[in-house]
Amino acid sequence: MARDFSSLSIRELRERLLDGPEGPSAQLLAKLKRDRRRGAQQLYEIIRRRFERDREETLRLDAMLNFERILWRSGVQRIAGVDESGMGPLAGPVVAAAVVFAPDVRISGVDDSKRLDAEQRDTLAALIREKASGVSIGLVDVDEIDRVNIYHAGLLAMRRAVEGLPEPPQHVLVDARTIPGITVPQNPFQRGDGLNFSIAAASIIAKTYRDGLMAELDRRYPGYGFLRHKGYGTAEHQRTIRELGPSPVHRKSFPYIREVLGECSEVFYDLKSELDAARSLAALQALEDRIDSRRAELGIEEQRKLRILITRRWKGV
């Protein structure tokens, strides 16, 4: 900027420093601070706050990209971040995503999908798809979940996501687990979706893709509220399952669904009925003793469910 700030009107300053395509440098910000006009000082505060936010975001992204940069510098170009969505819900598929970026790509705002609202996730998902060199989805449907169990279904979805990339990755970064059947090197990161850029991007893609599938299931199976709770076991969702019965996309292998379907042992239902009727500390203590005495007649999940229920009841009495 050739002219001194004092020779520019506040409107000109705003157009150049606030509304322009490029943000001001630290040097220009210091120069504006010396302009004692009231309007200039107000503009300085606005720009200073924006400058600080941008700097913090730059530092955050630098930290999230640390591992990718180490690999890029070593000559590894195709790094896939992998994450899944939908392990906990009572209904719907498990979805995983794999995302590969060219070296030094950065997208402001990318973070663990759970820290973002739906609008932020949708906006970022579009940017990720635009800037990524490869995006792939791996899906495991309800029948497969019930057949192989949810833990292995999550691993299978992640493997399918990696295998579906347009070019095989040279290295895989994954949230928390190691994906079986992948021959390239991989690194698991605990809470990687909040610490690593590529994994965080994959978490956003997986979450938004699955949310779209649950919106379609909401239209196909009205009344269950899939659009609102995305299949998670909210109180509303549990109530609708009891009222309507499980739909074809509910996970029949999950303990709660098995309970609703009447597939638990008679002992479990008898003890649960006693628990529902227990109203005193003495009754709860006697019931706890009966549960212990009949443990051999209960499945592991039935024991776990009864322990959870009785613990909650102890806190409420």
Written account of the structure:
The mean pLDDT is 90. The chain has a five-stranded mixed sheet. It contains 15 helices and five strands. The radius of gyration is 27 Å and the shape is elongated. It has helices at 10-18, 26-33, 38-64, 66-73, 118-131, 142-148, 150-163, 192-195, 197-220, 226-229, 235-244, 255-260, 266-277, 281-293, 300-316; strands spanning 79-85, 94-100, 134-140, 171-175, 186-189. It has three domains: 5-64, no CATH class; 67-216, Ribonuclease H-like superfamily/Ribonuclease H (Nucleotidyltransferase, domain 5, 2-Layer Sandwich), CATH 3.30.420.10; 266-316, no CATH class.
Summarize the structure.
The chain contains 15 helices and five strands.
Label this structure with key terms:
single chain; 317 residues; alpha/beta; Nucleotidyltransferase, domain 5; five-stranded mixed sheet; 15 helices; 56% helix
Biggest beta sheet attributes: 5 strands, mixed
How many domain modules?
Answer: 3
Highest CATH level, the class of the largest domain: Alpha Beta
Tell me the fraction of residues in β-strands, as a range.
5-15%
Averaged pLDDT: 90
Name the CATH superfamily assignment of the largest domain.
Ribonuclease H-like superfamily/Ribonuclease H
Give the beta-strand count.
Answer: 5
User: What's the number of helices?
Assistant: 15
What layout of secondary structure does this protein have?
Layout (H helix, E strand, L loop, with lengths): L9 H9 L7 H8 L4 H27 L1 H8 L5 E7 L8 E7 L17 H14 L2 E7 L1 H7 L1 H14 L7 E5 L10 E4 L2 H4 L1 H24 L5 H4 L5 H10 L10 H6 L5 H12 L3 H13 L6 H17 L1
Helix pairs in contact: 1-3, 2-3, 5-9, 6-7, 13-15, 14-15
